[in-house]
Amino acid sequence: MGQWVIAVAGIAILSVLCDVIIPEGQTRKYVKTVFGIVVTLVIVQPLISIFNGDWKFSAETDTIEVQQGYIDNVNNRQLRESVASFDKFMQANGIEASVCINSDSVKIIVSGSRSYVTERKINEAVALYFPNVQAEIVWI
Q1: Architecture of the CATH domain 69-139
Q2: What are the pLDDT digits (tens) for 41-53?
Q3: Given strand 134-139, what is the order of strands in its sheet?
């Protein structure tokens, strides 16, 4: 659609320039007639393509591809940032824990004594930092 508008504007500007440059006389009438036909054809061109069965209005819809490598990279980066934030949270609460990342899960290894309060904080942190990942908590 944008290309069509640019084409109409370009032909209109070109016809105005030719109208200014060409001197009076028989040639001027013919040039104005030719430019009138060209402007009309450019304006009606989208209707012609619709009647010919060519319904493509945009070429961008044909070139959409999923870039799986980019998506995997973003997901890995997000997981690493979640692990870093989880580690900071654990250190701030005085809990000694390390995180092991597998392809589709996270294993949290906690060292120290197991208590209700500690387990609750860890479960809250897991739900906060790893909501879409299978997480396993192992006590040592």
Answers
A1: Orthogonal Bundle (1.10)
A2: 888 887 777 777 6
A3: 96-101, 105-111, 134-139
